[in-house]
Amino acid sequence: MKRTLKRIVKVLAVIVVVALLGGGGWAGWQVHAFNASMARVYEVPVAQISRSTDPAVLERGKHLAESIGACASKDCHGGDFGGGDPIKMGPLGTMQGPNITAGGRGGEYSDTELARLLLHGIKRDGHGLQFMPAPDFAWWPDEDVVAVISFLRTVPAVARPSGAMQLGLLAKVLDRHDMIPIDVAPPPSPTAAYGIFLANACRGCHGATLAGGRIPGAPSEMAIPLNITPHETGMVGWTYADFDKLLSTGIRKNGKPLDPMMPVTELGNSTRPSVRPSGRSCNPSPPSRSATAERGRSGARHSRARSAA
Fold this sequence. Notes:
Blueprint: H1 2-39, H2 55-66, E1 87-88, E2 93-95, H3 111-120, H4 134-137, H5 142-152, E3 166-167, H6 169-175, H7 192-199, H8 203-206, H9 240-249, H10 264-268, H11 272-282
Antiparallel strand pairs: 1-2, 2-3
């Protein structure tokens, strides 16, 4: 009997070792693939744009940078665009938005290079960016790209070094299996079609179906994005007034404030033609059961970068 048990233990040990070696080899290959991708030079021509000094265009660019684009968020490039706060994401690494004023990275790019960066996530040397949510901007109309760049050129230069990006092994592995939808931007209007476009920025946190759930690899203390579909575990019964109040004040329908990771200030700066279609985009979405297991547990933080429930 003892001899049999020893044999079983040895077999199990061998299986565990093989599994660990196999898993390590698989993870190593994913990291290699990620590094190879980051080392690749993309032959994408720069976008041909013309900077504008029209006050209306500059105002539109300011609005986009401070609201929908969330460029001025403390978790992105900061209120003065001189660099955001470092975001520590456990095993995923640390992210920090750089200084994009003329005193930082912004001074290194031409207007056409900056447009390519926004639309394709490609740096001036042809390499890809890390963490830059280029897919969120890829469907922006040319007029909005011109407006944002034109506005950024009017921002005072900030003499502050940009923080370093540090990616952990887990982030590189997950990146190799990430899928981000790309859409075509409709013109700004209070319609469900434009709302669907705006809601694409929510999918990075709330998931492809907007049903929420823990972000893969995120530390346990990080907020869990909520279900923002009209399901009973989400936003069923919400009116436009409820949604407008949420984005304007950061207060949910139940009276509780949104998690600090939610860019309340930026969303509060959104114009009503931007808010109304955003609400419409959530309501027509198919109701999906929440992927969050513990929505009501005491002390839970229920949102992340763009949680809205």
